[in-house]
Amino acid sequence: MTEDRRLMTDDRRQRTEDRRQRTEDRGQKTEDRWQRDRLMSERIESFRDLNVYKLAIELQQEIFELTKRFPKEEAHKGCANDATVPELLRPDTG
Fold first, then answer.
1. Domain extent listing, the chain
2. Contact 89, 52 (CB under 8 A)
3. How many CA atoms does the CB half-sphere of 5 hold within 13 Å?
């Protein structure tokens, strides 16, 4: 009889733990949904508000800082044109 009781107690503990885990999972899903909704609700008024544009600006700065160390004669070697990354990403308004 005590063995049956121990098994019932273990089973009850497991069900309680499973319930707790499902509750945590639901909470995480809700938090994820709030985060997604907050990100989606940010107003984009121009291309400068786009994350890809902001990342391109950061990348351009990193490249600029790296190429400042190049010798003067190497600075523009291999460049197809003088357009900057943000200029290349800017939508055609013409």
1. 1-42, 45-94
2. yes
3. 2
Report which of 67, 47, 44 is spatially closest to residue 57, judged by C-alpha positions.
47
Cα angle 55, 59, 62 (rounded to 5 degrees) comes to: 140
pLDDT in tens, 29-58: 888 887 877 766 677 888 888 889 999 999
Alpha-carbon span 84 to 23, nearest angstrom: 50
Q: Is the pTM of this model over 0.85?
A: no
Neighbours of 47 (CB within 10 A): 13
Q: Give the Cβ contact number of residue 84 at 10 Å.
A: 14
In whole angstroms, give the CA distance from residue 4 to residue 74. Answer: 81
